[in-house]
Design a protein that fits this description.
- The structure is a homodimer.
- Chain A has four domains: about 100 residues, Uridine Diphospho-n-acetylenolpyruvylglucosamine Reductase, domain 2; about 120 residues, Uridine Diphospho-n-acetylenolpyruvylglucosamine Reductase, domain 3 (2-Layer Sandwich); about 110 residues, 2-Layer Sandwich (Alpha-Beta Plaits); about 90 residues, Alpha-Beta Plaits (2-Layer Sandwich), CATH 3.30.70.2740.
- In chain A, α10 crosses α12.
- In chain A, a hairpin with a 4-residue loop joins β8 and β9.
- Chain A is of the alpha+beta class.
- In chain A, about 40% of the residues lie in helices and about 20% in strands.
- The N terminus of chain A is likely disordered.
Chain lengths: ~475, ~475
């Protein structure tokens, strides 16, 4: 891999094309165009384990109209277009595998409108989730989707992200009402109106959400907000066996308890969290749970959950009701990736992301843990088990071909196990460059249908080439 | 309009083609092929006001493989394919506007699998919603989506249907996990695995849901189920003014009360319901509401709702806790269409279906009611106001060009009002033949994007031609 420029330094005509494009872009954006190595390096990697691929140029457009004009210039020059938000993707989504222009949209970070009446916010794609919730603080509303990283909303929409709250509030699929999208030919469309639901033709919003920048660039989006619950209580419950924790999660979902978060961490992960965050959690299989509702609703849910967890061997619940305690708890959980990385002294983390029907979850985690234990690599497990979704965080030295090979073997084995259990190789991270073959194993000819849609909406294949499809 | 056969009786070559296709289909399906007028007439109309258009043939396939084989035969003959479920669509979705073959899937009504652990059911597309819930009765689970009619699940998926429960449980968009689809060339794909969530490439499930049979035929689907709440309480609240009712609904949503249903009916509709069902509701603007949860949750919600409705001038709540009472209440509500029809003595009902951001709902209903009152036609209003979605039921004599013209004028005016309020011309009924121009007014160039997707997935334009697109 590598960027076009690096691969084909001898290709003078390509170099000329890029220079001409740079000049055109500068005529519109002035100094918001960069070909400097530092900036290109920054935009050539994400938080995953994939080797960097630098774009030829990085631009910083500020409006839908500028994005449209720049896409037209790139299309005329036949050069790739890669959308950039916060660079927190995990499957190489932002890598310029065929060179081209990285559209850094992080400066398009205006919260255009919050409608407390409609429970919606309209925002530019560079708005980050923490920024949004900070902005909302005085409105009594919040936006629930929380991938571990402080990602941009545009990036979260593009990968159909979710996180710990999905069990109650859904994923980005359920929470984007409408997008403004610039298509491969520069056309600007709006996928839907702002009504809460609609049957007006094909669901283009859902087609764009999760399309990883391969069908168009999102330049504005309207998302759902929720009233901050009157009462929020979090709790930690440790189990002597991982089965106890997983069965508790499954029973909690099946009883329709209405839990807002139910997160599983195995003993390895708990140990990593303690070391990283200086916490003193019991280093056993653990559930972090959270309940949202009125005072009496939450009280009832906590007590029902206590009954369930006790019946599966859970220890006494440690509840965190005070905001600071809760925040510390979830901060520790959100640091799972960084805590595992810290175990590794310079190693990268290969992060798996399987999701299975919840009836198959226990066997899937069990077999995964056994396989990890039999390997030479260090790995932790955490997951949004209420959705049937979990991650193995596998430490791997990027300089060691043996470790990379072993990690990839484990990764593929886990994904294939999930597929064999009628699950998916990716619950929330997306396909990127890392899971293109697995996608075909998972969905077969349906991928040809996706590719046909891609081909007709981006006939020059300039929008984030090399992602999702081989 | 009319079917090809009727329009072109002189066209011997077309007649030959149809006869040849009929023979081919018979070689596969035997007597499950019909060209009889009665059967064709049955399959040439829906429950809407659009003039019937008969298919040339009606077939009754029994499996995905048979659907695939029949689609291949139709594709070879270049003849249209129209999926048929229960015929309860409202915008002419099932009309054979260019003749062709009606694929009656009502016999594919097997409930393949219910997984109580996963809270899912896998079923054939001809399963009806009442059948499904009857089947589920002993499992403690239910499927919440309830358009007024006893539609098939395949039809409900195809129009992205919703109904009274959408405010709590979402629409078909949120409740179909995966579909088996036969594409225009006979290819069989599965849009997703059975995991509760996924980021595996484009969201083909959402692309198919709501595509009205224009991209492929759904031959199996996996849907979400929910635990039947421990406690269900319904209530009726009358208001002296429609504003009181609508403002109560809006405040209920904005407070995040978690109501399961909140249905508005205006005074005209309440009178129609009383006449039709022999009930004795107060003939004022009214909300029917329902609360789902544990004993104490429901008690709390009812009491909070009482406070809200009282503050907007609502009369004392009449609660219906016993199952029979509740069922009678919702049966009356679900009869809104038939009750309005009964006012009309042989008249048809033109049913509008706008949905606006809830902040614009009160003005939208007010202006609509004023416009209806100023017209010569009789009309009632009811709506899923928690979603910002409501319907005007306009009585129209199908033999009177003046009445049709007036009804269509009102319909278009309402749809344009909704669009001008950043809403949609259809919250849940779909586009069909009735709203194709309005779709373009609503979404502009986005409709070209939809058309491009259609063209690449159905290059011969044989799947339900004349629907969604002009």
């Amino acid at each position: 891999m590598g960027n076009l420029l690096d691969k084909k330094t001898g290709d003078a005509s390509l170099q000329d094309q890029i220079s001409a494009l740079e000049q055109n872009l500068r005529s519109l954006l002035g100094d918001r165009v960069s070909s400097g190595t530092n900036i290109r390096e920054q935009h050539g990697r994400d938080e995953g384990y994939h080797a960097p691929c630098l774009p030829d140029l990085v631009i910083f457009p500020k409006s839908t109209e500028e994005v449209s004009a720049c896409i037209k210039m790139c299309a005329a020059a036949n050069l790739p277009i890669i959308a950039w938000g916060a660079g927190t993707s995990l499957e190489g989504h932002v890598l310029a595998v065929k060179g081209g222009v990285s559209f850094d949209l992080s400066g398009m970070d205006t919260i255009v409108k919050v409608s407390a009446q409609d429970l919606t916010a309209t925002l530019e794609p560079g708005v980050r989730r923490v920024q949004l919730n900070t902005h909302l603080r005085d409105t009594g509303l919040f936006f629930p989707i929380d991938p571990g990283a402080d990602a941009t909303l545009g990036g979260m929409a593009s990968t159909r992200a979710s996180g710990t709250n999905a069990i109650k509030y859904g994923t980005m699929k359920n929470n984007v009402i409408s997008c403004t999208v610039v298509m491969a030919d520069g056309r600007i469309i709006r996928t839907a109106r702002s009504a809460s639901k609609s049957s007006a033709g094909y669901d283009l919003t859902s087609l764009i959400v999760g399309s990883e920048g391969t069908l168009g660039l999102i330049t504005e989006l309207t998302v759902r907000l929720y009233p901050i619950p009157e009462k929020i209580a979090a709790a930690v419950c440790s189990f002597a066996t991982f089965q106890g924790a997983v069965e508790t999660a499954i029973a909690t979902i099946q009883m329709g308890l209405g839990v807002a978060r139910i997160e599983f961490m195995d003993d390895h992960m708990m140990s990593a969290l303690n070391t990283f965050s200086g916490t003193d959690f019991s280093e056993q299989s653990t559930l972090f749970v959270e309940f949202h509702g009125s005072e009496i609703v939450v009280k009832e849910q906590v007590s029902l959950f206590e009954e369930i967890s006790a019946s599966f061997g859970g220890e006494e619940l440690k509840t965190a009701v005070v905001t600071e305690e809760r925040e510390a708890l979830w901060k520790a959980r959100h640091n799972a990736l960084y805590a595992t990385k810290a175990l590794g002294k310079g190693q990268e983390v290969l992060l798996t992301d399987v999701c299975v029907p919840i009836s198959r979850l226990a066997e899937c985690i069990l077999e995964t843990r056994e396989e990890l234990d039999a390997s030479s690599l260090v790995a932790t497990i955490a997951g949004h088990v209420g959705d049937g979704n979990f991650h193995a965080f596998i430490l791997v030295d990027p300089e060691s071909p043996e470790q990379i090979e072993e990690a990839e073997r484990l990764h593929e084995s886990m994904a294939r196990r999930a597929i064999s259990l009628d699950g998916t190789c990716t619950g929330e991270h997306g396909i990127g460059v890392g899971k293109r073959e697995l996608l075909v194993e998972e969905l077969g000819e349906a991928v040809d249908v996706m590719a046909a849609v891609k081909a007709v909406l981006d006939p020059k294949h300039i929008l984030n080439p090399g992602k999702i499809f081989n």
